[in-house]
Amino acid sequence: MKKETEKMDQKNFSKPLSLAKVQVTDAFWKKEMELVRTEVIPYQWNALNDNVPGAAPSFCMRNYRRAGEVEKERKAKGDKFVQIKYPLDTFETLPKDDKMDGRFYGFLFQDTDFTKWVEAVAYSLTQHPDPELEKTADEAIEAVCAAQREDGYLDTYYLINDQDMIFTNLKDNHELYCFGHLTEGAVAYYQATGKDHLLKAAERFADFIASKLGHGEGKKAGYPGHEIAEMALMRLYDLTGEQKYLDLAKYFIDERGTKPYYYDIERGLTCPEGEERYSYNQANRPVRQQDEVQGHSVRAVYLYSGMADVARATQDESLLKACETLWNNMVHQKMYVTGGIGATHIGEAFSFNYDLPNDTAYAETCASIGLVFFARRMLEIQAKAEYADVMELALYNGVLSGMALDGKSFFYVNPLEVLPEACHKDERKFHVKPIRQKWFGCACCPPNLARTVSSVASYAYTENDTTLFVHLYMGGTVEGEKVKASITSEFPWDGHVSVTCESDTKEPYTFAFRIPGWCASYEKEIPKGAEVEEKDGYLYVTKVWAKGETIRLNFPMEIQFLASNPLVREDAGRVAVKRGPVVYCMEEADNGKNLHLTKLCVNGEKTAEAADELGEHFVRVTAEGRRMKLGDAEKQPLYHLYQKEEEEKTKLKLIPYYMWNNRGEGEMQVWIRACE
Predict the structure, then answer these.
(1) How many CB atoms lie within 10 A of CB 516?
(2) Which pLDDT score is estimated for 302?
(3) Is the pLDDT of residue 5 over 50?
(4) Nearest CA to 126 among 15, 199, 36, 237?
(5) Omega within 30 of 0 (cis) for the link into 420
(6) 32, 119, 348, 549: which is the annotated catalytic residue?
(7) Fewest CB atoms within 10 A around its CB: which of 201, 206, 588, 592?
(8) Torsion sign, CA atoms 392, 395, 396, 398
(9) pLDDT tens for residues 347-364?
(10) Burial class, 477, CB count within 10 angstroms (exposed 0-12 / middle 13-18 / buried 19+)
């Protein structure tokens, strides 16, 4: 990527296709989407209503109903209403001795469990109409909207506990985060169903925020502690065309990190605590001055996504340059080979450059999802293959690993190496779970994953007046503004792709296909009379299309052994296995215990063979390896004079990383010691 940002050209801009215009038939992604529709969405609805035995309670819908009761009482009593107030000094409130009173329960951002769920429902309805599911969502929306105050405020933590304290702790208490997810869900549901009840609620909440925050008399110069409001406001702007939503998003971005720090003012601090004290919130410096990704990884990529949206809408080249600088640091110095980001569990945060430990990795599912958001938004500004390559990597690996193959259990943390005994006995690794969990009290990841998988087609294609961009290869039918096409693909297991026009065009039109970065060379079969150009990792094919004309592409998927940058200390002398977009791992179920004693022979024979197990069609990789003979290790001294290791030949069997931990608890390893 160039060091200096090119002048933005609106001719390069593109936008995602409406999901109503895309029907996914892809064998891989359709299966994942159906899993979300039939298993995850109903399961999560039960979780939101605390009806999953053995799972951590959500309290989400209970809180909405309780807030609705408070609002009903306030309206009935008018000036005589006196709120019963509860403490605001806990990040998570749980019942004592299973006894509940009228206060808010759960994490203070628990409202978002519902709003992410309803967003997933919306996307699912575009692909598979379901009157019963829609009815359930409509009834839930009624309960949510009943909790909203007449002035537009809607956050059950304060509505229930203490309305006098609204917007007094923007740094920590997630009101604007809850607004962001409310808005994302509301826009999606309106676009899927045409129903605007939740959308109007989101607009009223946005208007309330604009009346209270910003520059001007009586306003607070505040901005989100946990970002997402920025890109949510941009989504509202793109839908409604209302300038006020763009202005508010731009204000949040421009104000962030300026001095005096708003978080100091809000907290009443008069003595500085250190120049980088708000790096956790990406608020230590104005965003255009930030050159390293820092702090909470999910917050960071949500912010960067909003920055990219605002840069596109305002053609702000300085903001785009900041996005590019942060992207480069993250992808080239702080990203795991799986597309995971956030190396440390302390603050769920980025660590320093090249610090990417495998067995203590955090790599939160939500963080990979946020990386996908950021990548897509950069693609909307200009189609560059690097963005789509990372988006693809994260989707197939860092995102899907967060869900079991049956859709009934989940990972919050996605490590690259696991020894179950260490997870149970070593406090430093307690955050790493050796088996997926039914649910989480802090349940951001499962519904986030559901909404992403359900809307995956919106990441595959974007368009402008002259071009349909194919960023991800996914089978289905696509109806753009000027052309309709049918796409067949066997990704991620086979690189053959075909695209057939299902409509005639009267003027030249372009299809732009990403050339995957993992592919050394590719084959193409182009209809006669087409103009062909390669630019920024995309193949542009332009002509006046006749119905039935077909483009055929083949991106060979070779087994690759990847090495890390030598500054990544944890991976020195090791290799990771990748085929096409899929990263592989070894599991104890295939290779026995003590995976650390194995080596992969990089010059040895390797094969890729189709397999069908656990209800999944996939490609298994087998490679020549060596295993150190363990002997009677427990009778050996703890330390001894070095001697050449006694080894035996073995066959190492590897499965896709996203499939690990579907055969019970066991060791897992992505990076493997290498030998010749």
Answers:
(1) 22
(2) 98
(3) no
(4) 36
(5) no
(6) 348
(7) 592
(8) positive
(9) 999 999 999 999 999 999
(10) middle
- Helices marked H in 394-518 — which ranges? 420-425, 445-454, 457-460
Phi then psi for residue 647, to 5 deg, are: -125, 160
Mean pLDDT of 435-440: 81
Q: What is the pLDDT of residues 259-279, one digit of tens each?
A: 999 999 999 988 777 778 899
Listed in sequence order, the residues at least 6 apart from 474 whose beta carbon sits closer than 8 Å to its beta carbon are: 24, 26, 28, 29, 456, 457, 460, 487, 489, 491
Confidence at 102, pLDDT banded by 50, 70, 90: very high
Residue 281, token pair as written in the block = 């919130």
Residue whose pair of structure tokens reads 């592919």 in the numeric block: 519
Tens of pLDDT, residue by residue over 613-630, are 999 999 999 999 999 998
Amino acid sitting at position 422: A
Under the banding of pLDDT at 50, 70 and 90, the label for residue 609 is very high
**Distance between CA atoms of residues 424 and 573, nearest Å:** 28
375-401: b or e for each residue (b if 16 or more CB lie within 10 Å)?
Answer: bbbbbbbbbbbbbbbbbbbbbbbbbbb
Q: Of all residues in the chain, what percent carry a pLDDT higher than 70?
A: 99
Confidence of residue 424 (pLDDT cuts 50, 70, 90): very high
For residue 498, the 8-state DSSP code is E
Active site annotation includes 463: no
Over 80: is that where the pLDDT of 1 sits? no
Question: How far from each other are the two terminal CA atoms of the chain, in whole angstroms?
Answer: 34
CB 370 within 8 A of CB 297: yes
Count other C-beta atoms under 10 Å from residue 425's C-beta: 10
User: Would you tell me how many other CB atoms lie within 10 Å of the CB of residue 44?
Assistant: 28
pLDDT on residue 6: 57
DSSP class of residue 386 equals H
Instruction: Please tell me whether residue 385 adopts helix, strand or coil conformation.
Output: helix
CB atoms within 10 A of CB 7: 8
Cα–Cα distance measured from residue 106 to residue 44, given in angstroms and rounded to the nearest whole number: 16
How many residues make up the chain in this entry? 676
- Average pLDDT, whole number, for the chain? 95
Residues contacting 421, CB < 8 A, separation 6+ = none
Average pLDDT value for residue range 414-421 = 96
Q: Identify the residue whose tokens are 């559901």.
A: 450
* Strand ranges, E, within 580-615: 582-587, 598-601, 606-613
Residue 538 corresponds to which amino acid? Y
Q: Provide the token pair at 129.
A: 């109409």
Residue 636: is it exposed, middle or buried by C-beta count within 10 angstroms (0-12/13-18/19+)?
exposed
**Distance in angstroms (rounded) separating the CA atoms of residues 279 and 293:** 9
Distance separating alpha carbons of residues 607 and 434, to the nearest angstrom: 28
Catalytic residue among 366, 444, 501, 601: 444
In this structure, what is the dihedral angle of CA atoms 44, 47, 53, 55, given to the nearest 10 degrees? 100
Say if CB 493 and CB 27 are below 8 A apart: no
pLDDT, one tens digit per residue, over 526-569 is: 999 999 999 999 999 999 999 999 999 999 999 999 999 999 99
Confidence check: pLDDT of 3 > 70: no
- 161-180 per-position pLDDT tens digit: 999 999 999 999 999 999 99
Active site residue 444: yes
